[in-house]
Amino acid sequence: MRAKLLVLIEKNPNKLVQQLQKMLKDGNYRDERATHYALALALLASQQTQEVSTHLDWLLKQDEERLIYRLLEAQLALAMNQRDKGLQIYEQTLKVYPQNQLLSLDYAKTLLQHQFAAKAKNILLTLSVTDNPYYYHLLAEAYQGNGENAEARLAMAEHYYLSGKTALAVEQLEQGLRQTPLNFYLAARLEARLKDLQQELHEERDERKQNQRPE
Q1: Could you read off the pLDDT of 161-173 as tens digits, one per residue?
Q2: CA 162, 152, 202: angle at the middle one, nearest 5?
């Protein structure tokens, strides 16, 4: 994860590639695997896919079942326009790591990017209840892509609520209740959640007013 974060925050992946290549050449590293992995990510970010393969092959020889290496393998296949191969790697890895949140979220995101909303929804719904707002953002997108608009509003409401945006969550629930057709069970879920969040929003606003009063 530290390697991935390093690539994400580096604005110039080509510069990072050069730094990591020098570290490997000079043997100036604490963890050889982590350095190879960071370099592979940086190369992928800079679209140098052929060189990624070299480092990925080395990593897989060290530990072919390591989750982050399998994810990198899938991402590389997709970057090389080998969609079916990439999705197959995700599917095979999911059998080894069922209900793994990191894998499931990445796989669902990829499925949504390729218009497989129903499959993405099924994968997300197998996960245990989570407090990750990104999960609910993906779930909302999956529901929306599957034509389940009210469910999408309910999921998006949870995304906003967990992101600290209660007012926006309330708006999503209100919009969800205006969707048609709407079965009794789903309407009851929306109404119950709306009631809870309206109460929380009222309390938040009262607290804000009290904090703004001069002493």
Answers
A1: 999 999 999 999 9
A2: 45
The CATH fold assigned to 96-203 is: 1.25.40
pLDDT band at 124 (very low <50, low <70, confident <90, very high): very high
